[in-house]
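batch_manifest entry 22 of 60
target: UPF0749 protein YlxW
source organism: Robertmurraya siralis
requested by: lab member K.T.
priority: normal
notes from requester: please return tokens only, no post-processing; we will run our own comparison against the previous entry in this batch. if the run fails, retry once and flag.
--- input ---
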Amino acid sequence: MKLKVKGKHVILSLVSLVLGFIMTFSYHLTEKNDTDTAMTNSQWERDIELRNQLIEQEEKNRALQQELIEKQEKVLEIEELLAQEEQVFFNLAEDAEKYRMFLGKVRVKGEGVTVTLADGQYDPNDDNINNYLVHEHHVFNVVNELYVSGATAVAINGQRLTHNSYIVCNGPVIEVDGNPHPAPFVITAIGEPEVLSSALNITGGVKDRLVSENVEFKLEENQEIILEPILGS
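--- output ---
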């Protein structure tokens, strides 16, 4: 009888031990699942936050990129305006240089032609000395033809001509802006030599008329001509 009671106690102890183990295991398993669930939720919230930050940063980048494009377009507009202004200033400077050259205010150098007009040979059978002398209208005809043909600067015996220059006869000499010059008269002009020469040599043109009036006419093409500026006011 005592042996049977003792056996029941042993069985109850074993059952209690197994139940305790199961409850403990179940508790730890539940706690672990709760922890894993909590960690999973936290990680998910963190991922959502990072994704929102990434979206926000991408929107800022797009806005900055658009702003950059607008500024680049503005820079291009300014560059175009500056280029136009630069061209305007260049044209103004070029025009000013042409005006100074035309007024004889600057020293000029370039290719061109030289025309020499000399008195004709004396004819004892001609009582009128004016028939073989170079007159102001001879010089003026040459100068006018050179300007019409594109000469940018002209000088007579080294004296530069301006837009208001005048040429008059005064006995055996001619006066250019009040300065007397004896024959021969050397007219130098800067321009395209071939064009200037062709204009003077055209049939029935300036050269033919002067030669027919007993004026000795000589024409040379030059690779370099230097004309000094007009001195004084």
